């Protein structure tokens, strides 16, 4: 226990003596039962509670298949964990298994070998400032797997101390890992293959016309996957601008009826007197102006899909006629007696609460149940987390091509504003915001002051200034320039000050004004 004083040293800002009881518990289980599941459970608990680890992973190395498989983790979703399969020498984890040597990355953003294979790190957020530690699980000279940890960087001494702690954990775990691999080598390989296939399936089925990988959207993709193989009626719910038409298109173009027509009709775009003729068609002479036979949208969609957008805006009279089509897949044209049968899928969409409309008597209850066979609710943009940045980058890339304007990136303060905003207009509003900002950008970067006033975040130092006043605007620009310089120079105040044409002292005063800390940008 000669090294115990080192772990008791709290001058580094954290104390490691709390890990000792759990280390003892781990060693007892390893000695008495060798139960890997129990050992890893304690290991991950120790890392999460006592080492300020944001994400922790234990991988196992299957020599027969040559694959390194993520066995247990925390801080990762099941989808992200399923992507955690590496080859020998691939990325940081692959190099640790190949060499048997620990690797410490003080800052992920500065390490080109860091693969982000699981896709769990957002390179434009604080995730890029995390440190990554990976130690081998050794049994003799053979590498059995690795233990990895991601945590906020504090100082080199603390990272060195954490490498020592993780190495002790790896040594304690090694025997149980070896026994597990001997007994379950086939299961390990099979599980790795299943994870790979599930991950590949998720990527394959993700509709090409929809951008986003957040958890709410992955749930939407799963619902789409389930319904595309049938001709079940689908009701798409969600606020205006969330992309209901894109989901309808994804269902149609991934279904067996993809070669058939995809007919779209907005029920709110025409007056009631015209909607019936538009949907069901009319015979020659059926009303003034009917100079010839005209097929309706249902006939045009035969063999494919009809998408009825804003179905909650239909009148009760039109609702009754639509109900018959859903029940019997048949109708008559306006002014005609011949019954027309159609084979198609009906997809309806609305931003209204149909259940409340049924209770108010403004929407037919029987039609509601006919439409609500397979509901899919599209989450609003404010609930989609990292998708906001993904979509913003997508729109920047698209508008760069369409406008011929080269914009390389969105500044950090602008990204913060995009993520803080509530987006009442959802994806459509974000698209308009990016298009406007592209037109205002002059240096290949979208800055915070290029965004509309409704998105402008109040700057800490200017809380008393009117939000639309000159001082507030100038403060927002100054704040953004300082943040950009600190980010560019990884928190080096001397280099940031030179970049801004300031002295280090003046930069320090300006940073104090906005409560900025250079350590946050290392």
TrEMBL record:
Keywords: Activator, ATP-binding, DNA-binding, Nitrogen fixation, Nucleotide-binding, Transcription, Transcription regulation, Two-component regulatory system
GO MF term set: ATP binding; identical protein binding; sequence-specific DNA binding
Record carries keyword NAD: no
Entry superkingdom: Bacteria
Residue ranges occupied by any Sigma-54 factor interaction domain in the UniProt entry: 210-439
An example Gene Ontology biological process: regulation of DNA-templated transcription
InterPro entries: AAA+_ATPase (IPR003593), AAA_lid_NorR (IPR058031), GAF (IPR003018), GAF-like_dom_sf (IPR029016), Homeodomain-like_sf (IPR009057), HTH_Fis (IPR002197), P-loop_NTPase (IPR027417), Sigma_54_int (IPR002078)
SMART domains for the chain: AAA, GAF
One Pfam family cited in the UniProt record for this chain: GAF
Keyword field contains Transmembrane helix: no
Gene3D superfamilies linked: 1.10.8.60, 3.30.450.40, Homeodomain-like, P-loop containing nucleotide triphosphate hydrolases
Protein name: Vanadium nitrogenase sigma54-dependent transcriptional activator, VnfA
Organism listed in the record: Azotobacter vinelandii (strain DJ / ATCC BAA-1303)
